[in-house]
Write a structure and sequence with these properties.
globular, two-stranded antiparallel sheet, mainly alpha, 2 strands
Length: 249
């Protein structure tokens, strides 16, 4: 008696759109939790004063021996650092945000435009609140005339750069169909954020842990905004970007 052949198993169905949404949402929440944990760890060590020696060692490593008021390298390197650090200044970030908002408005994406405003300016306000909360003074290795008026922890330039560039990078990456373009946009956003933070340490206007905390807080805030935007787009409260297809409920 012949044994009937077994039917070949059907290939497993690819993850549904709804399933991908859940995975992205969970991944975003996990990254937010990790960012908050790292920030709390840095803030705790700063409050204890146990990380002061590390900060001074790193900061002095990029200053001229015997004259810590001057950064290492020729004068043009310092000027370049001043140019690069302006990418994280309030005026430049507001201009970039307004340009992106105008682009969204021209596309008729008014609700996501308003969400972008809330994300960017909310992050800037959070930076000021955290500065007042910790009240850490600026490094005293440069002349008082060169020091900004605001407090030191976390770095406002580093945090605001992370908020704006990472948020815009993620937004623009979602409309690109090709992986290499997505990777380029996100890599560029990360690169600008890193360069702004490093320039703050090189110029001596922030302790290294100020910058680390700024990066962490800014990235965490950008992730929170990305996760909220994902949820709002899922429910239709915020418009989808041009090339997104509706997800199955």
């Amino acid at each position: 008696m012949t044994v009937p052949a077994e039917k070949p198993k059907a290939p497993s169905a690819p993850l549904s759109l709804a399933g991908r949404y859940e995975v992205r949402l969970l991944g975003g929440l996990l990254l937010v939790g990790a960012s908050v944990w790292v920030f709390i760890e840095i803030a705790g060590r700063v409050a204890e004063g146990s990380i002061r020696a590390f900060d001074e060692k790193i900061l002095l490593a990029v200053r001229e021996p015997g004259d810590p008021s001057e950064p290492l390298g020729p004068h043009w390197v310092e000027e370049l650092a001043r140019d690069l650090t302006s990418l994280g200044s309030g005026g430049v970030l507001i201009l970039i945000t307004l340009a992106a908002a105008a682009y969204l408005a021209l596309q008729g994406k008014t609700r996501i435009m308003l969400f972008l405003f809330a994300a960017v300016f909310g992050g800037m306000i959070l930076s000021l609140v955290l500065k007042d909360l910790f009240g850490r003074p600026r490094p005293d290795l440069v002349s008082k005339e060169a020091l900004p008026l605001t407090l030191s922890f976390p770095s406002g330039h580093s945090m605001s750069a992370a908020v704006v560039y990472l948020t815009l990078g993620a937004l623009l990456a979602r409309v690109q169909p090709r992986f290499r373009l997505k990777a380029y946009l996100l890599s560029l956003a990360f690169l600008i954020t890193i360069v702004v933070g490093l320039s703050r340490v090189y110029l001596g206007v922030h302790w290294p842990t100020d910058v680390l905390a700024g990066w962490t807080a800014g990235a965490g805030w950008a992730l929170i905004c990305w996760t909220v935007a994902l949820a709002l787009q899922k429910t239709g409260q915020v418009e989808r970007v041009a090339s997104e297809k509706p997800e199955a409920s």
